[in-house]
């Protein structure tokens, strides 16, 4: 990356109201068939343009082509029955009705590769593509086949690696794995969570990132955050092993969060996507708010490794709010860039 402090988002952006009901997770599509296929591409173009107008350096599809960051990927796999549903507790936080793993899981066809090719055709900027991480995938399913979280995670890691290699071939510059589960299951993270993530990136030459956050600004997450106390030290559990891993970039939640910034010291040497935009609030940060968070982070990460970003995806926000936040991110990064070059 040539620009200092290249900006990006953690992933999702709001969908237009003609595509799906806004400000809602798992919002059903409003169209189908060929109309839906075209509408998703139109939304992707729109989302890309919003990022470009805001001056975002590393762009994405805004996740316009998927209903949800985990389930849409799983829907394309063999071995999972979406009709057979069980209620499970997701990330020890809320109950959800989830599909059942009924047989060996496999990827029968590419999932996002055509969408990534389409995005690649639209821009010469660096592009980032998000996939769910193995641990977060298993946590969103009922497993009646392997009956082992670890075994299923290894199977998903192999599948993710197939998809990631094809995304790389399609011209994706950074492949990001979303692992909010890394903030919850600390023993598993260290026993096999990071190992399965490394299996998912095996043999890739493009850059790789892991996004570890405290989730979207939905009620189940904000209620959970209230139980975490005044200092959130969850990252302390996974960072030492992540620092030793082959992952290039770690994406974190830092804006308005109770994460002590000095924990970033534990991943010294990695590139860090610092969340400088709060996605759980409709208040649009000022550029100075963003700059303050970035300056704070610069005490623990070298300037050439600091990537200003958002805490998490912005899918549940109003479009005007998300747009304002994109502009604030860009303007805040510009302030600090100016200070660094002065
Ligand atoms: Zn997130």
From TrEMBL:
The keyword Transport belongs to this UniProt entry's keyword annotation: no
GO biological process: methylation
CDD domains, alphabetized: CIMS_C_terminal_like (cd03311)
Residues in Cobalamin-independent methionine synthase MetE C-terminal/archaeal domain copies: 5-329
GO molecular function, one term: methionine synthase activity
InterPro entries: Met_Synth_C/arc, Met_Synthase_cat, UROD/MetE-like_sf
UniProt entry tagged with the keyword Isomerase: no
Cofactors: Zn(2+)
Top-level enzyme category: transferase
Top-level division of the source organism's lineage: Bacteria
Keywords of this entry: Metal-binding, Methyltransferase, Transferase, Zinc
Catalytic activity, EC: 2.1.1.13
UniProt-listed NCBIfam families: PRK09121.1
Protein name stated in the entry: Methionine synthase
């Amino acid at each position: 990356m040539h620009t200092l402090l290249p900006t990006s988002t953690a992933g999702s952006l709001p969908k237009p109201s003609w595509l799906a009901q806004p400000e809602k997770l798992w919002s059903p599509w409003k169209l189908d068939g060929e109309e839906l296929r075209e509408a998703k591409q139109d939304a992707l173009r729109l989302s890309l343009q919003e990022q470009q107008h805001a001056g975002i350096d590393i762009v994405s599809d805004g996740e316009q082509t998927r209903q949800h960051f985990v389930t849409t990927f799983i829907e394309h796999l063999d071995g999972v029955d979406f009709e057979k549903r069980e209620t499970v507790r997701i990330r020890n936080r809320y109950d959800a009705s989830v599909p059942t793993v009924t047989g060996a899981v496999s990827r029968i066809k590419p999932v996002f590769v055509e969408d990534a090719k389409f995005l690649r055709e639209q821009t010469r900027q660096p592009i980032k593509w998000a996939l769910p991480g193995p641990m977060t995938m298993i946590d969103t399913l009922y497993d009646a086949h392997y009956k082992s979280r670890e075994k299923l995670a290894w199977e998903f890691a192999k599948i993710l690696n197939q998809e990631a290699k094809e995304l790389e071939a399609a011209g994706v510059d950074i492949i990001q794995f979303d692992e909010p589960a890394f903030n919850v299951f600390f023993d598993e993270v260290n026993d096999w969570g990071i190992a399965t993530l490394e299996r998912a990136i095996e043999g890739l030459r493009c850059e790789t990132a892991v996004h570890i956050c405290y989730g979207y600004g939905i009620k189940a997450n904000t209620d959970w955050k209230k139980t975490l106390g005044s200092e959130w030290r969850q990252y302390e559990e996974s960072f030492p092993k992540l620092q030793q891993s082959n992952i290039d970039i770690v994406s974190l939640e830092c804006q308005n969060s109770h994460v002590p910034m000095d924990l970033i010291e534990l991943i010294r040497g990695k590139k860090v996507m610092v969340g400088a935009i709060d996605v759980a609030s409709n208040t649009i940060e000022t550029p100075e708010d963003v700059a303050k968070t970035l300056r704070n982070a610069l005490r623990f990460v070298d300037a050439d490794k600091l990537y200003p970003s958002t805490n998490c995806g912005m899918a549940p926000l109003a479009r005007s709010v998300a747009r304002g936040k994109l502009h604030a991110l860009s303007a805040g990064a510009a302030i600090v860039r100016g200070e660094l070059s002065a």
